[in-house]
Recover the amino acids of this structure.
Protein backbone atom coordinates (compact mmCIF):
# COMPACT_ATOMS: atom_id res chain seq x y z
CA UNK A 1 0.00 0.00 0.00
CA UNK A 2 1.28 3.45 -0.95
CA UNK A 3 2.30 5.76 1.87
CA UNK A 4 2.68 9.52 2.13
CA UNK A 5 4.79 11.62 4.49
CA UNK A 6 2.93 13.36 7.31
CA UNK A 7 4.09 16.98 6.92
CA UNK A 8 1.06 18.10 4.85
CA UNK A 9 -1.35 16.46 7.30
CA UNK A 10 0.27 18.33 10.18
CA UNK A 11 -0.39 21.57 8.27
CA UNK A 12 -4.01 20.56 7.56
CA UNK A 13 -4.54 19.72 11.25
CA UNK A 14 -3.09 23.09 12.29
CA UNK A 15 -5.24 25.02 9.80
CA UNK A 16 -8.38 23.21 10.94
CA UNK A 17 -7.58 24.02 14.56
CA UNK A 18 -7.02 27.66 13.57
CA UNK A 19 -10.61 27.70 12.27
CA UNK A 20 -11.92 26.39 15.58
CA UNK A 21 -13.26 23.21 17.09
CA UNK A 22 -16.43 23.15 14.97
CA UNK A 23 -14.44 23.10 11.72
CA UNK A 24 -12.14 20.39 13.01
CA UNK A 25 -15.08 18.33 14.24
CA UNK A 26 -16.92 18.66 10.89
CA UNK A 27 -13.96 16.98 9.23
CA UNK A 28 -13.31 14.42 11.96
CA UNK A 29 -16.93 13.17 12.04
CA UNK A 30 -16.76 12.24 8.33
CA UNK A 31 -13.52 10.27 8.61
CA UNK A 32 -13.09 6.56 9.15
CA UNK A 33 -11.52 5.70 12.52
CA UNK A 34 -8.15 5.07 10.83
CA UNK A 35 -8.16 8.38 8.93
CA UNK A 36 -9.32 10.21 12.07
CA UNK A 37 -6.37 8.78 14.00
CA UNK A 38 -4.05 9.84 11.17
CA UNK A 39 -5.40 13.39 11.28
CA UNK A 40 -5.19 13.51 15.06
CA UNK A 41 -1.76 11.99 15.67
CA UNK A 42 0.43 11.86 12.55
CA UNK A 43 3.85 13.43 12.94
CA UNK A 44 5.46 15.38 10.09
CA UNK A 45 8.21 12.79 9.62
CA UNK A 46 5.99 9.70 9.88
CA UNK A 47 4.31 7.83 7.02
CA UNK A 48 0.58 7.23 6.59
CA UNK A 49 -1.36 5.13 4.07
CA UNK A 50 -2.23 7.20 1.00
CA UNK A 51 -5.88 6.18 1.15
CA UNK A 52 -6.14 7.82 4.59
CA UNK A 53 -4.43 10.97 3.29
CA UNK A 54 -6.94 11.04 0.43
CA UNK A 55 -9.82 10.70 2.89
CA UNK A 56 -8.52 13.57 5.04
CA UNK A 57 -8.02 15.80 1.99
CA UNK A 58 -11.48 14.99 0.58
CA UNK A 59 -13.15 16.17 3.79
CA UNK A 60 -10.74 18.90 4.91
CA UNK A 61 -10.26 20.78 1.62
CA UNK A 62 -13.87 22.08 1.38
CA UNK A 63 -13.81 23.13 5.05
CA UNK A 64 -10.49 24.94 4.66
CA UNK A 65 -11.39 26.48 1.28
CA UNK A 66 -15.19 26.75 1.22
CA UNK A 67 -15.29 29.41 -1.51
CA UNK A 68 -12.79 27.78 -3.87
CA UNK A 69 -14.02 26.33 -7.14
CA UNK A 70 -11.52 23.49 -6.62
CA UNK A 71 -10.90 23.07 -2.88
CA UNK A 72 -8.29 20.31 -3.33
CA UNK A 73 -6.27 22.51 -5.69
CA UNK A 74 -6.57 25.44 -3.24
CA UNK A 75 -5.38 23.16 -0.45
CA UNK A 76 -2.36 22.22 -2.57
CA UNK A 77 -1.54 25.90 -3.10
CA UNK A 78 -1.78 26.49 0.64
CA UNK A 79 0.42 23.47 1.39
CA UNK A 80 2.98 24.74 -1.12
CA UNK A 81 3.06 28.18 0.49
CA UNK A 82 3.50 26.66 3.93
CA UNK A 83 6.02 23.98 2.98
CA UNK A 84 8.12 26.38 0.90
CA UNK A 85 8.34 29.14 3.46
CA UNK A 86 11.47 30.08 5.34
CA UNK A 87 14.77 29.55 3.58
CA UNK A 88 13.13 27.77 0.63
CA UNK A 89 11.28 31.00 -0.16
CA UNK A 90 14.61 32.64 -1.01
CA UNK A 91 16.08 29.62 -2.80
CA UNK A 92 13.06 29.36 -5.09
CA UNK A 93 13.58 32.96 -6.26
CA UNK A 94 17.00 32.15 -7.74
CA UNK A 95 16.28 28.85 -9.52
CA UNK A 96 14.73 28.32 -12.91
CA UNK A 97 11.32 26.69 -13.30
CA UNK A 98 12.79 23.63 -15.10
CA UNK A 99 15.31 23.18 -12.28
CA UNK A 100 12.54 23.43 -9.66
CA UNK A 101 10.47 20.80 -11.48
CA UNK A 102 13.52 18.53 -11.79
CA UNK A 103 14.14 18.91 -8.05
CA UNK A 104 10.50 18.09 -7.35
CA UNK A 105 10.95 14.84 -9.26
CA UNK A 106 14.26 14.12 -7.52
CA UNK A 107 12.71 14.65 -4.07
CA UNK A 108 9.56 12.65 -4.81
CA UNK A 109 10.59 9.67 -2.69
CA UNK A 110 11.02 11.85 0.40
CA UNK A 111 7.26 12.44 0.51
CA UNK A 112 5.88 9.40 -1.31
CA UNK A 113 7.05 5.83 -0.91
CA UNK A 114 5.49 4.76 -4.21
CA UNK A 115 6.15 5.87 -7.75
CA UNK A 116 9.12 6.96 -9.77
CA UNK A 117 9.06 10.64 -10.72
CA UNK A 118 10.77 12.28 -13.67
CA UNK A 119 10.68 15.73 -15.24
CA UNK A 120 11.01 16.79 -18.84
CA UNK A 121 11.21 20.28 -20.26
CA UNK A 122 8.95 20.19 -23.31
CA UNK A 123 9.41 23.77 -24.50
CA UNK A 124 10.90 27.10 -23.46
CA UNK A 125 8.08 27.64 -20.94
CA UNK A 126 6.59 24.20 -20.51
CA UNK A 127 7.44 20.97 -18.76
CA UNK A 128 5.89 17.70 -17.66
CA UNK A 129 6.24 15.98 -14.31
CA UNK A 130 5.56 12.25 -14.64
CA UNK A 131 5.05 9.60 -12.00
CA UNK A 132 5.21 5.95 -13.02
CA UNK A 133 4.76 2.83 -10.92
CA UNK A 134 2.01 4.41 -8.82
CA UNK A 135 -1.17 2.57 -9.85
CA UNK A 136 -3.39 3.82 -7.03
CA UNK A 137 -2.77 7.55 -6.90
CA UNK A 138 -6.08 9.03 -5.66
CA UNK A 139 -7.64 12.02 -7.45
CA UNK A 140 -7.80 14.49 -4.55
CA UNK A 141 -4.14 13.99 -3.69
CA UNK A 142 -3.29 14.46 -7.39
CA UNK A 143 -5.17 17.79 -7.37
CA UNK A 144 -3.26 18.93 -4.29
CA UNK A 145 -0.02 18.13 -6.14
CA UNK A 146 -1.23 20.42 -8.95
CA UNK A 147 -1.85 23.25 -6.51
CA UNK A 148 1.48 22.64 -4.80
CA UNK A 149 3.27 22.86 -8.16
CA UNK A 150 1.60 26.18 -8.99
CA UNK A 151 2.57 27.56 -5.60
CA UNK A 152 6.18 26.37 -5.92
CA UNK A 153 6.63 27.63 -9.47
CA UNK A 154 5.16 31.04 -8.67
CA UNK A 155 7.89 31.42 -6.03
CA UNK A 156 10.47 31.49 -8.85
CA UNK A 157 8.82 34.66 -10.16
CA UNK A 158 7.07 32.85 -13.02
CA UNK A 159 3.64 34.18 -13.90
CA UNK A 160 0.49 32.73 -15.39
CA UNK A 161 1.42 29.26 -14.12
CA UNK A 162 -0.96 26.55 -15.30
CA UNK A 163 -0.88 22.91 -14.28
CA UNK A 164 -3.07 20.27 -15.91
CA UNK A 165 -3.06 16.89 -14.24
CA UNK A 166 -3.96 13.71 -16.03
CA UNK A 167 -2.63 10.40 -17.11
CA UNK A 168 -3.51 6.94 -15.89
CA UNK A 169 -2.24 4.30 -13.48
CA UNK A 170 0.50 3.57 -16.04
CA UNK A 171 1.82 7.14 -15.84
CA UNK A 172 0.39 10.16 -14.03
CA UNK A 173 1.29 13.51 -15.61
CA UNK A 174 1.24 17.16 -14.64
CA UNK A 175 1.64 19.38 -17.70
CA UNK A 176 3.01 22.74 -16.64
CA UNK A 177 3.16 26.04 -18.53
CA UNK A 178 4.26 29.47 -17.37
CA UNK A 179 5.27 32.95 -18.52
Amino acid sequence: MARYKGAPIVIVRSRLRDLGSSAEERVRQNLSPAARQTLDTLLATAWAPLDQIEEVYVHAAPVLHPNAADPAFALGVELGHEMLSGVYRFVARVVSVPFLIEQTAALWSRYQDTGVASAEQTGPRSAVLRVREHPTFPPTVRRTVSGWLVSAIERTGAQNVRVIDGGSPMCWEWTITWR
